[in-house]
Design brief:
Elements: H1 4-14, E1 18-19, H2 21-29, H3 37-50, E2 56-57, H4 59-63, H5 68-73, E3 85-89, H6 100-120, H7 131-134, E4 143-154, E5 159-164, E6 169-174, H8 177-184, E7 191-198, E8 204-210, E9 227-231, H9 243-254, E10 265-271, H10 293-305, E11 312-316, H11 334-341, E12 346-348, E13 353-357, E14 360-364, H12 369-376, H13 385-395, E15 424-427, E16 433-438, E17 441-446, H14 454-459, E18 467-472, E19 477-482
Parallel strand pairs: 1-2, 6-8, 9-10, 10-11, 11-12, 14-15, 15-17
Antiparallel strand pairs: 3-13, 4-5, 4-7, 5-6, 7-8, 9-18, 13-14, 16-17, 18-19
Bound molecules: 2'-deoxyadenosine-5'-monophosphate, fe (iii) ion (FE) and zinc ion (ZN).
Length: 488
């Protein structure tokens, strides 16, 4: 015979919800005379649907309606999850640039070599020929080569691309519709693999383009159910910084009663532009309410000090922070952000940085090169940053286009090549929330805490501000929590 509990659970499952085993045990042990289980579960389901939360009933959902004496036994304050932060690579801290032209030659040689090594390890690409050996001119046979894109010319009926691999250069021409479309999307200075055929007149005709890409993979997940918040672009000091909304976010982090997730948040990543800075663009002072950079960081530290100490905060710089603009950027220095260095739960890293949060591989990168990619690729817009980040993953490079708004320091090694495949790729900068899952990697752009500035209005950028993506590190599911004030 089915018990009332089983009948109830069947209803829950019929709504598309899952029940965690521990939640199930708790439901079983509740006294039906004391609690209206049906009503309580109904309320939880309604709330989860309304707030677009994951369709899982956890033990914390059940605890939320248990009478106090039962609650004590499962008191959330007893949750003791240890921080597991590993810094894998923080190149901005130690990078020594090379001087002059030689440095740039070395940089691009390193880019080519690193990417060739990545692709040559795959069975499909073991037959990549050097450009110099292509000149032997075997006609009507598909040849495969690779190089960095030196030039791209889009004409009415064709597109030509010139690539260089250090042994020589070759211009390939795209003539058919499919090749033309592929060729148009190619980013200057990026590494591409090219299939071509020589015509009777010795013209290299493009047959196909392949990007280094990331392989399909299973992300590494946390064994414990812990959450990380990915944010950026607070722009403290700007008139448009959303002080009230950000305060409400901090309050929420302190209100352990309000949400069972709060107790399991162990990391907050701030991927640059925490402050608005000063002298970043002409007439910026008209848009500031705090002109002193140190004071902007003091204000940031005041906010961050209100975050529970059980949460580790990782801060990397962006283009509004007082460090060199060229990549890789060093961490925000102590001279500006002394208060942050005094905090035990704050780690300051450079941009980009690779970290592991509870075993999950996270690539943190502010994202300035997104501007350059959006400006170049037909169809790319500011309102879809995940699409742009996906292309960076395919190119296996954080800032392929040289000489745009995003600049790179010359050096013997190109550290912006994405050598290891991240489980989470986090950027900000464009101020628009966006996410995607690409071949097992969670792509995340974190939006901002700054309302539309007059400049962004001119550019047609509509920021998504005051919403934070919270990621369950044991599933990589995202919950977008809004702290926007209701303006109804
Ligand atoms: O950049 C926030 C967004 O605004 C980002 O997508 C770039 C755009 N932006 C900002 N400044 C400029 C300039 N000078 N030209 C073009 N686009 C710009 P943030 O880094 O927060 O200022
Ligand atoms: Fe920003
Ligand atoms: Zn920025």
């Amino acid at each position: 015979m089915e018990t009332n509990t089983i009948i109830l659970l069947k209803k829950v499952l019929a709504d598309g919800f899952q029940v965690e085993p521990e939640a199930f045990k708790l439901i079983e042990s509740t006294d039906e005379n004391e609690i209206d289980l049906e009503k309580s579960l109904h309320n939880i389901i309604e709330k989860k649907i309304k707030e677009k939360e994951a369709k899982i009933i956890t033990k914390y959902d059940i605890i939320s309606f248990l009478p106090p004496q039962n609650k004590i036994e499962f008191n959330e304050s007893k949750i003791d999850i240890k921080i597991m932060l590993e810094i894998i690579s923080d190149i901005g801290s130690s990078f020594i640039p090379s001087q002059g032209k030689k440095g740039f030659q070395e940089l691009f040689t390193s880019r080519y070599n690193k990417l060739l090594k990545i692709v040559s390890a795959r069975p499909n690409y073991h037959n990549i020929e050097k450009i110099i050996s292509l000149k032997k001119n075997v006609k009507e046979k598909v040849r495969r080569t690779a190089g960095l894109v030196m030039n791209k010319k889009i004409r009415q009926n064709n597109v030509t691309i010139t690539i260089d691999d250090g042994t020589g250069m070759i211009e390939v021409i795209a003539l058919d519709k499919r090749s033309i479309n592929e060729a148009k999307k190619v980013l200057l200075d990026s590494f591409i693999i090219v299939d071509l055929i020589f015509s009777k007149t010795n013209t290299a005709i493009l047959k196909a383009i392949f990007l280094p890409d990331i392989p399909e993979h299973k992300p590494v997940l946390s064994k414990e159910q812990v959450y990380a918040i990915f944010t950026s672009d607070l722009h403290i000091g700007s008139r448009s910084f959303l002080n009230k909304e950000f305060s409400s976010f901090i309050n929420w982090l302190n209100n352990k009663e309000s949400d069972q997730i709060v107790n399991r948040i162990k990391y907050i990543v701030i991927a640059g532009d925490a402050v608005d800075g000063i002298g970043i663009y002409p007439n910026q002072e008209q848009e500031l309410i705090e002109y002193n950079l140190q004071n902007q960081y003091i204000k940031l530290a005041e906010f961050l000090k209100m975050i529970p100490k059980s949460i580790e905060i990782i801060i990397t710089p962006g283009n509004h922070d007082p460090v060199r603009q060229a990549l890789p950027q060093p961490p925000i220095p102590r001279e500006y952000a002394g208060d942050l260095y005094e905090m035990d739960n704050v780690t300051l890293l450079g941009n980009p940085a690779y970290v592991r949060l509870h075993n999950v591989n996270v690539l943190i990168y502010h994202g300035r090169s997104l501007d350059d990619v959006i400006a170049t690729v037909p169809g790319f817009t500011f309102d879809n940053p995940a699409q742009v980040m996906k292309l960076l993953l395919k190119c296996r490079h954080l800032s392929p286009i040289y000489g745009g708004r995003s600049s790179i320091l010359p050096g013997t090694e190109d550290h912006l090549v994405i050598t290891s495949v991240p489980d989470i790729f986090h950027s900000g900068h464009v101020h628009v929330l966006g996410s995607d899952n690409y071949r097992g990697t969670l792509i995340l752009n974190s939006g901002s805490w700054q309302s539309q500035t007059p400049f962004q209005a001119k550019m047609g950028i509509i920021p998504v501000a005051g919403i934070v993506p919270i990621v369950n590190l044991s599933t990589l599911e995202i919950l977008a929590k809004s702290f926007k004030l209701d303006k109804k």
